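Async update (no meeting this week)

Hi team, since we skipped the sync, here's where things stand on the single-chain job. The sequence we agreed to prioritize is pasted below, unchanged from the tracker. I ran it this morning and attached the output directly underneath so nobody has to dig for it. Comments welcome in thread, and please keep replies under the output.
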Amino acid sequence: MSSEKTGKDRLFSFLFVRHRTATLNAVTTALAIIIALVLALVLIFAVSAQPGNAIYQFLLGPFASRRQMGNILTTAATISYTGVAVCIMFQASMFNMAAEGANFLGAMAGAIVATSMNLPPVLCIAVPMLAGMLVGAVIGFIPGLLRAKLNANEMVSSLMMNYALLYLGLYVLKNFFIDKTAGQVATAKLPKASQLSIIIPKTGVHTGVLLVIVVIILAYIFLYKTRAGYGLRIYGQNSEFARYAGISVGGVIVSSQVLGGAVAGLGGAVEVMGMYQRFQWTALPGYGWDGIIIAILARNKPQFVPLAALFIAYLRTGANCMNTYADVPKELITVIQAIMMILVTAAALTGRLKQRIAIKEALGNVK
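Output:
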């Protein structure tokens, strides 16, 4: 009886510490964001001759027109895809940076399929998206396989691979799919049937904004409601325990990277089909790096990705307004993001250390 009571007490103490840690994480993240914004205001006062107008444009400019609010939604949707992709990878404790290359080549693959294949109207949207997902999945598979079979560091391999993918993509584009009448390095124009519909008039908000909501819901269900997602999260929290529990470690590593790459590739295809008439990127777009920022702010939880993405999109839209209508360069937002990431990452690290100490103390006190 006493042993049963002790077991229940241990479980209660563990759950109490977990709940307290989650609350602490939310508070520290909010505090880090507030500190970063305060520092941003200080910097604006330091560099602007009209700080009042600059702050007004920064904070309220994004809500000044329907077009600006539409920019917030489209930017948030774009970076949400890579945010979800990185969340899936990070949940397995895999610091894979291939979302950038997957997003780039996924966009190009979607455009090539849309412009090269004579698809029936029913498939003009789905097939290019599937092509982007497939290419992204292959890209995610490579560092995952290297880690699973050779124990190669996935961060190094994926980071190096991104630039190889960029130049491989440009080579394929320039030599096989370039539209010589475009006046730039770009594919032919996407057929009208392959372009995503605008859902809010006088803005750029397209159906890809709705699709990302579905992707976020599916990612949440996979991670928290399926056996495979549970195994992935267990491996991310304690790889040795996962091995002892009989979880296929190699399968978890590869599957997490494949899924993350597929989501990033889908995001690239959606971006081109929703925002452009043709694929015309000649450099990495940076959405993969944005995904890392989103994942850190969201604490690797897909359900929090929309909030993090909307916040970053709001900051960037405000920065554009400030750059256009005031005398502060939009590069200031890069500084703000850097400060924010340092603070949030530091808070996450100290929070994890405190959680481990608190759990040990709570379990040690129940005897």
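Quick observations from my side:
The CA atoms of residues 107 and 182 lie 18 Å apart.
Confidence is low (pLDDT under 50) at residues 10-17.
Reply here if anything looks off.
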